[in-house]
Amino acid sequence: MRALVYSVHNFDRPFLEKAAQHHYMHFTELALNTDTAHLAKGFDAISLFSNDDGSSAVLQILHHYGIKFIALRSAGFDHVDIEAAKSLGIKVGRVPEYSPYAIAEHAVAMLLALNRKLFEARELMRLQDFRLDGLTGFDIHGKTVGIVGTGKIGIAFARIMKGFGTRLLANDPVLNPHAPELEIEYVSLQELLMRCDIVSLHCPLNSSTYHLLGKNEFALMKRNAILINTARGAVIDTEALIHALMHKQIAGACLDVYEREKGLFFYDHRTSVLTDPHFMILKGMKNVILTGHQAFLTAEALEAIAHITAQNLTEWEIHGKSANDLN
Ligand code: NAD
Q1: Nearest to 17 by CA among 310, 266, 299, 313
Q2: Nearest residue to 1 (alpha-carbon basis) of 34, 44, 46
Q3: CB atoms within 10 A of CB 20
Q4: Closest ligand 1 atom to Cα of 230
Q5: How confident is the model at residue 22 (pLDDT cuts 50, 70, 90)?
Q6: How high does pLDDT run on average in the chain?
Q7: 284-285-286-291 Cα dihedral, nearest 10 degrees
Q8: Is residue 116 predicted with pLDDT exceeding 90?
Q9: How far is residue 239's CA from residue 214's CA, in Å, rounded to a whole number?
Q10: Whose CA is closest to 6, among 272, 314, 35?
C-alpha cells in the first residue's frame, strides 16, 4: 500500500516511521486542502489528522487521482464528509480509541492549572514575588462535576474526578454501562449546566452538538463554574463564551480546541499577525487557559495512533475493509 501521510509533524513522525511496517509511507507537513490534494496522485491511500480538510470538494479531487482509502489518525471524523466519500467509493477508517486517558488527564491538568493559578504562580516565582495575593483557588473535593458525553474519554475523566471526591452528573443520549459504579446521575443538559461547578465536554462534533453551548446555555451556568473543552471547538459558540466570560456568567474556561483552529494550531505563527479577534480575546483573558489541541499528546497515544493507522492500511490491502471503517 502506498500512502501519502498529510500533516505530519516532528512529534508524530518517529511513531509513524516505526509503525509503517511493509507500507510505503510518504510524509508531508502540508495539510490536505484543495491546493494540496493533487499531491496524492500515484498513491493508493492517504492519512489525515484532525485539521485536514476532508470536504466533498477535496474528496472529489482525491477520487480523480485514484485514492481508495483514507486512514484518519484521529477518533473524531467531523472534518471528513463520510457520505461523500462513500458515494465516491473511498473507504474512511479512523483510530476509534488510542488513549482516552491522555485526553481526560489533560482536561484535569488544565482544570488544576486554572483553578490553582499555576501560570501566574510560575511568573511570580520568576519575579521573586512571593506574596500569595490573587492565587486563591477552590477545593475540587465536594464539588459537582458535569460531563457532556460519557463515552471512552468522558468515562476516563469521570473516574479521575471521582477520585477527587466529587459528585458526578452527566448528559448523554446513551447511558454508559460503567456509570452505575461511578454513581453518575444522568440529567438533561439544562439541569447539568444549572447544578455543576465544573463542566467538561466529551461529545463528538456533529449536527446535534454544533454550538451545543451558546448564549442561552451560558446563562444557565453557575457564576463560579469552570468550563473545560477538549472535544471540538465548534461544540461551543465562541462569541457567546467570550460574552459569558466577560460578563462573569461563568468563572473560567479551559480550552484545548478552538472553533477556528484549522490552519492555526499545529503550526509556527511566531512571525504572523494573527487576525482572528475572538482567538486574540481568549488568548489574553486571565480566566482562560488555552492549549493548541494537545490533549492527545502522550507517547502512549502517539504509538497507538501510528500502530492502528498502519493496521487499518494492512486490513484494507488484504481484505478491502478494516475493523475501523466509518463507511
Ligand atoms: P466516544 O464515541 O467514545 O464518546 C462520545 C460520547 O458522546 C458518546 O457516549 C455519545 O453518545 C455522546 N454524545 C453524542 N452526541 C451527544 C450529545 N448531543 N450530547 C451529549 N452526548 C453526546 O468518543 P470519545 O473517544 O470519548 O471522544 C469524544 C470526542 O473527543 C471525539 O469525538 C473528539 O472530537 C474529541 N477528541 C479530542 C481530542 C483532543 O486531542 N483534544 C482527542 C481525541 C478525541
Answers
A1: 310
A2: 44
A3: 18
A4: 41
A5: confident
A6: 97
A7: -70
A8: yes
A9: 8
A10: 35
Q: Which of 94, 103, 206 to mutate to test the pocket of ligand 1 (most atoms within 8 A of CB)?
A: 103
Q: Whose CA is nearest to atom 11 of ligand 1?
A: 174
Residue 154 Cα to ligand 1 midpoint, Å, equals 7
The cell numbers describing 201, all together, are: 465536554
State the DSSP code for 7: S
In 3-state terms, what secondary structure has residue 229? strand
Residue 230 in contact with ligand 1 by CB distance below 6 A: yes
Q: Where are any strands of DSSP class E within the chain?
A: 2-5, 24-27, 45-48, 69-72, 91-93, 144-148, 167-171, 185-186, 198-201, 226-229, 252-255, 288-290
Q: What angle do CA 272, 275, 277 make, to 5 degrees?
A: 140
User: How many helical (H) and strand (E) elements, i.e. helices and strands, does the chain have?
Assistant: 11, 12
pTM, rounded to two decimals: 0.95
Any idea what DSSP says for residue 142? T
Look up residue 181 and give its three cell numbers. Answer: 459504579
Q: Cβ contacts of residue 306 below 8 Å, gap of 6+? A: 12, 15, 16, 18, 19, 73
